[in-house]
């Protein structure tokens, strides 16, 4: 009887070991598939070449090879834009794991009642995945893929990095892509210098960039911006005076031309390092003065049959080129 009991126990233990081995193998396989499911890099887009001066002011830029004003990606976004974006798009961004079951449930109920897709319930992480997948059809299957990849993205990257990905690749109307390009094209300055009203405009634009932008449906854009500003006032982010003044700010009329202060330098960087952002030793303020000096003297030089000139300003101590 003891021998039989030992054999039974040994057989049961062997079966249990096989099950454990099978479950362990399945878990390892799942983790491998999960880890490899996210493309690397997530975005493989061509970028514009952007050249800045020693203080971070733009000297000039060259458009990306696909005809889009898409600046090289950033790691973080300014506080005002982040606050506006999260208030408008994803208030629980820092709490969810990439997807928000409550938002998805509400969107599902709204779509059932409307008998068509009127709401997606997507988080900013899911929207980042959708941007990387280049406008796949909005189906239930695709939504499940977005949820899976959004969770995978959250495992690998910080919330700030994901915000940077979204801000760098979101559409802002026309051929303007990304926060950096939109800030310069619509307001003529870097994102860190935007007012609350300007940050609010850029926060609402990616939601429907083909339907509303400064050149189309301006009234609707104005209404969405001011509604966002009032919600910021209601939760205590901005005070009433700031809200009123911001709501009175006019919308940009059309995209602005980008600065072109040092075309020869920008052209060289474009040839040698296309798709990069480059911080030079040049001083933009001094470069403007040098350009004005060259223009003033151009007519006199041409009268003397001198058709070419060059001006070079150096810092003799550091040997840096200033203009």
Q: Classify the secondary structure makeup into a structural class.
A: mainly alpha
Helix content: 40-55%
Total beta strand runs: 7
Mean pLDDT: 88
Spatial strand sequence of the major β-sheet? 2-1-5
Distance between the termini: 98 Å
Helix-strand sequence: HEEEHHHHHEHHHHHEHEE
Could you tell me the radius of gyration in angstroms? Answer: 27 Å
Percentage beta strand: 5-15%
Q: What is the overall number of helices?
A: 12
Low-confidence stretches: none
Overall form: globular
Largest sheet features: 3 strands, mixed
Give an overview in words.
With 323 residues, the protein is mainly alpha-helical. It has twelve helices and seven strands. The strands form three sheets. The protein has a three-stranded mixed β-sheet with strand order 2-1-5, covered by helices on one side. Strand 6 and strand 7 form a beta hairpin. The chain starts with a helix and ends with a strand. The mean pLDDT is 88.
Compact summary:
This protein has helices at residues 2-36, 79-89, 101-114, 124-132, 140-156, 159-169, 179-187, 196-204, 218-234, 240-248, 263-272, 284-303; strands at residues 49-52, 58-62, 69-70, 176-177, 277-279, 314-315, 320-321. By secondary structure, the protein is mainly α.
Q: Characteristics of this structure?
A:
about 325 residues; mainly alpha; three-stranded mixed beta sheet; two-stranded parallel sheet; 7 strands
């Amino acid at each position: 009887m003891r021998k039989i009991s030992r054999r039974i126990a040994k057989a049961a233990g062997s079966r249990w070991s096989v099950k454990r081995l099978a479950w362990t193998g399945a878990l390892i396989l799942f983790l491998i598939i999960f880890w490899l499911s996210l493309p690397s890099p997530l975005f493989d887009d061509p970028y514009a070449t952007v050249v800045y001066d020693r203080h971070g002011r733009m000297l000039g830029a060259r458009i990306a090879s696909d005809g889009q004003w898409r600046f090289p990606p950033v790691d973080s976004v300014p506080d005002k834009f982040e606050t506006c974006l999260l208030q408008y798009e994803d208030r629980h961004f820092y709490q969810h794991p990439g997807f928000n079951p409550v938002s998805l449930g509400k969107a599902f109920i709204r779509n059932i009642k409307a008998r068509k897709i009127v709401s997606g319930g997507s988080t900013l992480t899911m929207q980042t995945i959708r941007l990387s997948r280049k406008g796949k059809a909005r189906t239930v299957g695709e939504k499940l893929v977005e949820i899976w990849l959004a969770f995978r993205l959250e495992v690998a990257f910080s919330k700030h990095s994901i915000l940077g990905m979204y801000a760098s690749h979101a559409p802002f109307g026309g051929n303007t892509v990304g926060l950096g390009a939109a800030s310069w094209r619509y307001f003529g300055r870097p994102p860190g210098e935007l007012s609350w009203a300007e940050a609010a405009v850029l926060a609402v634009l990616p939601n429907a960039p083909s339907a509303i932008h400064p050149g189309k449906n301006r009234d609707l854009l104005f209404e969405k911006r001011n509604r966002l500003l009032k919600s910021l006032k209601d939760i205590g982010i901005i005070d009433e005076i700031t809200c009123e003044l911001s709501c009175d700010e006019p919308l940009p009329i059309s995209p602005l031309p980008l600065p072109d202060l040092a075309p020869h330098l920008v052209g060289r960087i474009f040839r040698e390092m296309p798709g990069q952002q480059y911080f030079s030793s040049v001083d933009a303020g001094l470069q403007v003065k040098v350009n004005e000096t060259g223009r003033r003297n151009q007519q006199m030089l041409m009268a003397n049959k001198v058709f070419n000139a060059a001006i070079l300003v150096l810092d003799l101590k550091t040997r840096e080129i200033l203009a």
